[in-house]
């Protein structure tokens, strides 16, 4: 029979083929395309508009691949994502079927079960271990690694039990799916946590679509509340997905999860090796992975029995994909839950205005955790006026914050200094000729990384060794760092408090989950007195002995033309402030600012999030900006500056006239050159209910771009660089 096939291929997206009887939509197939074979998925009739072809000319599929089929709800998500974000459905499908899906399957892993117990077991430690394993009567068969995780024994110790016959191997061919033990009971919840869990659990069990905003202050126990939903999802064999914005957060989250459930979830992110990703994909697709924790790309994995999606730190900008398919993970998560008819939880202490507005409209249900869990209370917040109380010349820590740091060091407590600038200094200037050293491929200054001895572009990655002489005038020893980065701040701290144990934490030092685990262990063991870091420290971390947070340059995010600048500044500072006082010890936060009267700073000091969001709402409403209007960005780029400027002008001139839709631009993008390509931008502003995508399709269908100019479309842009 004939059927459409969506190809996971750059080229024609949907073609008709002859498929064998009994092959249903969702089957993964290999099909001929010219001289090649490409992979694709048999699709539903009538979803895509394709030209009619005589049956005699249709080619049969080459093979039906031995992969789990792509379910209907995921096929619906592929179509919606392609339509909404104006992307090729074939490119979206490549996220559903990543390369790991087609790698050779891993070798069968042997599982073990308890064998004969000898009457005499030598050694008290071995006796205790065997006794623990005997008591785990519902556990297994399991791999040695899984036995090790469940018992806290090493794999080598368990191997000795295999040699003794206490653990017996089941032949790989006879391996059966793992029999999971019952979900253990969780800890005692607080009153607000319990109320939220009592709403979430039955919704998961009833398999109803309902989006929740779990709005809780930092340290209120949002994670444990979410775990109650996870427990309900997996209690009868279902699956749960938890999205995290940063790989660095994964390790601490995994540790908390294992403590609660007794097993480790399946991880999915770019930091995994190809073999590990292949193993994870197979476990997810065949249903063996009960809980998956991952980055935004995990949304497109083929879960066969997904029951719950949780988006942790749902406000975070990292959930927005900025290249390729420019989707927002938060919004796609809601749509995946909608198509699968399951609940989704957006968990955050600082929800985006768009999310708050959905609660206000009644679309999302609010679950509120207004107080910290247990004895912990919110920290006291102080504003330091940098005009009236500046730091000494050439320094960056103002006297009130320096005094608070001194006090914490004397009491043996931990502190965190937050500055969202990597490296040593954001600008290197020649004192002789005034040259500012720029990236040759981007409209950006090179950032000095003194420890690495290089100047680096944080946009394209271009780097050069730090020169001794000015590249413009040749003057030696005249290059001066301007402004502070975290390395320069650490230099000041170590010079002032040489006995303090200081650790700098950025995306340069926290590259893997192992790095994150080492950091957590060092801080919890008391091996660090002062943490100095960027936004990677602003979320997810729970350090009970950390009682002081200092924000060095609180005004940093307020510059530029980003409509969300105030909101993001509030979110970022509120999140990093929330690291203080999460245990029994009270916390304090000092915010250094040149604009203490700015609404965002006043709202932070008063802890008046509601007032700040209401003012932000009124401003956006008056301007018709999201969530009360819609935006789309069209970014043209080329290595030829003249060509891209000319195409931008012609594209703007061809824009149709439509009621309620305005086209702004073109103009050079704020980051006018990126990775060697010149960039021009147009912004399209539309009413909330305007048919924005239809307008863009009509407009772009009448414009032919030259081969040397690329067009990227960003629906609901979050970045305006």
Protein architecture, described:
The chain has 721 residues and is an alpha/beta fold. It has 5 domains: 2-97, 3-Layer(aba) Sandwich (GIY-YIG endonuclease), CATH 3.40.1440.60; 111-174; 191-369, Rossmann fold; 380-421 and 484-616, Rossmann fold (3-Layer(aba) Sandwich), CATH 3.40.50; 629-715, 2-Layer Sandwich (Alpha-Beta Plaits), CATH 3.30.70. Helix content is 30%, strand content 22%. The chain has a 7-stranded parallel beta sheet, sandwiched between helices. Strands 15-25-24-16-23-22 form a 6-stranded parallel beta sheet, with helices on both faces. A 5-stranded antiparallel beta sheet has the order 2-1-4-3-5. Strand 19 and strand 20 form a beta hairpin. The chain is globular, with a radius of gyration of 28 Å. It starts with a strand and ends in a 6-residue tail after the last strand. 43% of the residues are buried.
Give a concise summary.
The protein is of the alpha/beta class.
Name some characteristics of this structure.
Rossmann fold, six-stranded parallel β-sheet, GIY-YIG endonuclease, 721 residues, alpha/beta
Label the overall shape: globular
CATH class descriptor of the largest domain: Alpha Beta
Model regions low in confidence, pLDDT < 50 over at least 5 residues: none
Strand order of the largest sheet: 10-11-9-12-13-8-14
SS strand fraction: 15-25%
Number of strands: 29
N- to C-terminal distance: 50 Å
Q: What is the CATH architecture annotation of the largest domain?
A: 3-Layer(aba) Sandwich
User: Counting H and I runs of at least 4 residues, what is the number of helices?
Assistant: 19
Largest sheet: 7 strands, parallel
CATH topology of the largest domain: Rossmann fold
Rg estimate, integer Å: 28 Å
The CATH superfamily of the largest domain turns out to be P-loop containing nucleotide triphosphate hydrolases
- Taken together, the total number of domains comes to 5
Mean pLDDT: 91
Return the structural class. Answer: alpha/beta
- The helix content is 25-40%
């Amino acid at each position: 029979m004939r059927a459409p096939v969506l190809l996971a291929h750059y080229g024609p997206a949907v073609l008709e083929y002859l498929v064998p009887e009994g092959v249903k939509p969702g089957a993964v197939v290999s099909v001929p395309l010219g001289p090649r074979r490409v992979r694709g998925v048999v699709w539903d009739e009538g979803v895509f508009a394709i030209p009619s072809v005589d049956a005699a000319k249709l080619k049969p599929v080459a093979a039906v691949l031995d992969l789990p089929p792509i379910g209907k709800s995921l096929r619906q998500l592929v179509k919606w994502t392609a339509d909404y974000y104006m992307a090729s459905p074939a490119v979206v499908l490549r996220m559903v079927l990543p390369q790991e899906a087609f790698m050779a399957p891993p070798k069968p892993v042997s599982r073990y079960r308890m064998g004969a117990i000898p009457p005499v077991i030598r050694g008290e430690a071995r006796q205790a271990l065997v006794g623990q394993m005997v008591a785990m009567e519902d556990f297994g068969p399991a791999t040695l690694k899984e036995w090790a995780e469940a018992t806290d024994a090493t794999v080598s110790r368990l191997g000795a039990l295999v040699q003794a016959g206490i653990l017996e191997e089941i032949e790989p061919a006879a391996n059966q799916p793992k029999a999971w033990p019952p979900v253990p009971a969780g800890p005692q919840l607080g009153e607000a946590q319990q109320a939220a869990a009592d709403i979430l659990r039955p919704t998961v069990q009833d398999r109803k679509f309902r989006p929740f905003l779990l709005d809780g202050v930092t340290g209120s126990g949002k994670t444990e509340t979410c775990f109650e939903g996870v427990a309900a999802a997996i209690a009868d064999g279902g699956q749960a997905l938890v999205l995290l914005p940063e790989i660095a957060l994964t390790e601490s989250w995994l540790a908390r999860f294992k403590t609660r459930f007794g097993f480790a979830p399946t991880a999915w992110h770019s930091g995994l090796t190809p073999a590990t990703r292949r193993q994870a994909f197979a476990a997810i697709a065949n249903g063996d992975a009960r809980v998956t924790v991952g980055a935004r790309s995990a949304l497109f994995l083929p879960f066969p029995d997904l029951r719950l999606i949780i988006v942790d730190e749902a406000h975070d900008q990292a959930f927005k994909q900025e290249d390729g398919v420019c989707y927002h993970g938060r919004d796609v998560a809601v749509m995946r839950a909608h198509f699968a008819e399951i609940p989704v939880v957006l968990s955050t202490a600082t929800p985006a205005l768009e999310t708050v507005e959905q609660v206000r409209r009644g679309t999302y249900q609010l679950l509120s955790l207004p107080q910290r869990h247990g004895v912990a209370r919110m920290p006291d917040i102080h504003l330091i006026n940098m005009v009236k109380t500046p730091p000494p010349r050439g320094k960056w820590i103002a006297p009130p914050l320096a005094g608070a740091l001194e006090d914490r060091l004397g009491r043996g407590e931990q502190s965190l200094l937050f500055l969202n600038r990597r490296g040593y200094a954001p600008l290197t200037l020649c004192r002789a000729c005034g040259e500012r050293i720029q990236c040759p491929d981007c409209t950006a200054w090179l950032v000095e990384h003194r420890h690495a001895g290089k100047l680096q572009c944080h946009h394209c990655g271009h780097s050069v060794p730090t020169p001794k002489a000015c590249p413009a005038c040749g003057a030696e020893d005249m290059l001066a760092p301007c402004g502070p980065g975290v390395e320069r701040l650490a230099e000041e701290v170590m010079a002032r408090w040489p006995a303090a144990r200081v650790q700098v934490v950025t995306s340069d030092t926290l590259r893997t989950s192992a790095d994150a685990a080492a950091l957590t262990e060092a801080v919890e063991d008391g091996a660090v007195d002062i943490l100095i870091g960027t936004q990677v420290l602003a979320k997810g971390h729970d350090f009970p002995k950390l009682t002081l947070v200092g924000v060095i340059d609180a005004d940093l995010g307020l510059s530029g033309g980003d409509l969300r600048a105030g909101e993001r500044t509030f979110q970022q500072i509120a999140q990093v402030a929330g690291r203080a006082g999460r245990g029994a010890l009270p916390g304090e936060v000092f915010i250094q600012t040149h604009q203490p009267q700015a609404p965002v700073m006043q709202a932070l000091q008063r802890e008046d999030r509601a007032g700040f969001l209401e003012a932000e709402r009124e401003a956006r409403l008056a301007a018709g900006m999201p969530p009360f209007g819609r935006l789309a960005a069209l970014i043209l780029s080329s290595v030829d500056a003249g060509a891209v400027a000319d195409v931008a002008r012609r594209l703007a001139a061809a824009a149709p006239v439509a009621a309620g839709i305005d086209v702004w631009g073109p103009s050079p993008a704020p980051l006018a050159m990126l990775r060697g390509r010149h960039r021009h931008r147009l912004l399209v502003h539309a009413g909330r209910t305007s048919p924005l995508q239809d307008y863009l399709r009509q407009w772009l269908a009448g414009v032919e771009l030259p081969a040397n100019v690329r067009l990227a479309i960003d629906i609901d842009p979050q970045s305006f660089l």
